[in-house]
Amino acid sequence: MARIDESLPFHPLGIAVLTVSDTRDEESDRSGALLVERVTDAGHSLAGKAIVADDVEAIREQVRAWVEDPGVDVIISTGGTGFAPRDVTPEAVKPLCRREMDGFAVLFHQASHATVGLSTLQSRAFAGQIGDSFIFCLPGSTAACRDGWDLVLRDELDSRYRPCSLAGMVPRLRSLVPS
User: Over the Cα atoms of the chain, what is R_g?
Assistant: First the structure.
């Protein structure tokens, strides 16, 4: 049965939060703030926080910097995954991925459908692996970030989640993969 095994030790991950927006700043970035709160409340380390414009090169520059940082295991972005002309997060990030995580989009859309119905079709949320880092790209709404973290990422990034979690795929935690 899938569950958190409380008998196992928790191994915090270094998680960076990236907000992609032409209009938000630290004061108005509610989605980024929600993710920071969720990440730290779960016991993970906030490895970075940034806001960049809806610009392919700006997004790639920040993502690459975090991928090169040994303290960043996971990147969670918010914003730029819709169909507005300036929504370019998938175009910026997907070419950097050596692997895409198709199951994340499926699970995110299932969770999102339960809260926003068919409007979930307007999201191009996705995830992948760049080098040894994982990246999860969520929509920019606070509700979408809440669904993404609470209903998908919280447990999958918890090293105690069984039968297995992504934490065991992080190089420094590979010994956590059940045999």
Answer: 15
